[in-house]
Design brief:
This protein has six helices and no strands. By secondary structure, it is mostly helical. The chain has one domain. Helix 3 packs across helix 4 and helix 4 crosses helix 5.
Amino acid sequence: MSEVHTLTTPKTDEQKREALRARIEAAQQRNSERTLAEQARQAADEAIAFTRKHPLAVVGGVIFAGFAIGAMTKSGRKVGKRGSVLVNLALESAFAYGARMLQEALVTARDAGDRLEDIGDSAATTARGLRRDAAYKFDVATDAVRAKSRKVARKGSRAVRSLKERTGR
């Protein structure tokens, strides 16, 4: 067991460096094979995922960036003196954003409930149709069995009558 471990794990610093270089080259090869569109799509997907996971952090970052850029301009510094107004505006915006997110979650939950109700109605309709079809097929099979049993009974009674006539009974 220890022989396998020593074969897969580099012992010396030089072997570790070579293994790291090989990993870096493999990563560079993978990156060079990816197109710019794939890289952009992946970056956009990661940004969307981060935004969905941390929406308040994104809003806060945008507000902070706006304040930072505004503070770099002359008119922005004048507005900075009235900072309490901007803080109140930022808080109101954050509360409005949170309320909107809550409202969207409630609407989504209601829509999901409506979809579940539709699925339940569809399943019930399908079950009734299947029950109706099964009852019909059972009735058809029962009728076929009755017809066959009558036919067999007629043939049997005719055969018995024919035997009686031949034997004289």
